[in-house]
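Why do we bother with holo predictions? Because pocket geometry can differ from the apo form. Keep that in mind while you read this record for copper (II) ion.
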Amino acid sequence: MVSGLLGRVAGAMALVLLASCGSSTSPYGGGGGCTPTATKVCMSGSQFSPSTLTVPAGTTVTWQNGDAVAHTVTSATGSADVYNSGNLGGGATYTHQFATAGTYPYYCMNHGANGTPPTGMHGTITVTP
Ligand SMILES: [Cu+2]
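The structure, written out:
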C-alpha cells in the first residue's frame, strides 16, 4: 500500500530529525557558540547581540561570529572611526579599539545596509569619556 509506505517514511524521517537534534555538537550552530560580555558583541541568527553596547573610551571591542554564515563588522556613515572586518566565518573574531567618546553605528554588509541609521543587521557602539 502506498499510504502505508508513506507513513513508514514519515516515521523514519521523524526519527532522523530527533536524532540529529539530540546529537548536535557544533559549537556554532544557531548562534549558540558565542556569549556576549561587557566588551564583546556576538553575531547570532544574523543579528548583533547586544545591538547596542556602551563602553568607556579606550576600550577594545570584540565581535565574534556565532553563526555558520559569514558576517562583517563595517562602520556606517556617521561613525567617527572607519573600519571593515571583511567576511568573518563561523567562530571568527574581529576587534576594534574606540579611543574617542561618541556614537559609532555599524552594520553587516551581507545582511544589513549602510545608512543613517544603518538598517537590517546593524548595531551601535556608544563610547563614553
Ligand atoms: Cu551578517
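The beta strands are 40-44, 47-49, 52-56, 59-65, 74-75, 93-98, 102-113, 119-128.
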